[in-house]
Design goal:
Helices cover 0% and strands 55% of the residues. The protein has 291 residues and is mainly beta. The strands form six sheets. It has a five-stranded mixed beta sheet with strand order 1-22-21-20-19, with no helix packed on it.
Length: 291
Amino acid sequence: MKEYIAQVFSDEKYLLGESPFYDHRTKTLSWVDITKGMFYAVGEDGKGPVKAYDFKQAIGAAVPAEKAGSYVIAASDGLYLFENGSSRLIKNLSDYYESYQRSNDAKADPAGRLFFGSSVDDDIHEASGNLFCLDPLAGGKISVRQADTKISNGMAWSRDRKKFYFSDTLQYAVFEYDYDLATGEISNQKVLFRPEEGKGNTDGMCIDADDNLWVAFWGGSRLEQRSTKDGSLLATVKVDAKNVTSCCFFGDDLSTLFITSSGNGLNGKHDGCLFTCKVDAKGVKTDFARL
């Protein structure tokens, strides 16, 4: 089994760093701080200046959209289109979320549909939510793809577009589904793997060109590369942060991981920092949300 060690990308700390994406069209890395309601972007494969935008509410994800340089922001009260430094509401989510819920992770499928999850935004209510889909091929309709989730997190699609993978942190599993590209429907849920007890829980993830998942572990200080054939462990990436939240591939050859973490309530030297790690794998290009 291979073992890698992630390097610190930035000493700046984030309360809840999440939703890393790489837009190969503009060579832009982006991420959010959910708790602070901030969206960040840096060009030139991470070498340019970091631009920061305050949404003044919790935002679960910022997904690159069909127009280069634009993003769909999954916020607490709705979905927003962000472009040219400003945002506008495109979908009010008050009919889909409870008052104590917010958006969590989100990602576009290969057809441009936006999959996004809801989760609880306080320490009072039990974990709850749903995995939703905004489908531009069905007139912008929003529907539930997986009901009764706890914390919707990582999402990925197989290279042949026939499988969908989904991490539900407090269901303690990464699940596999059959996937229909024509309709965006998922079916036949089964557990791909469960984390080892006491070693953290699965959070965000991405997939490589060989259909292996790279999964962040909240409370586990690592990423794991997992086979989608049988869920077996192929490699680990050690990260000097307790709560590792998500990852994506970036760079010209998509062989370097960009990793986010959460520093909320922690005092480790690099808790909440961003990291990178060169690995012996190639990622796949980001799918863009269509509107």
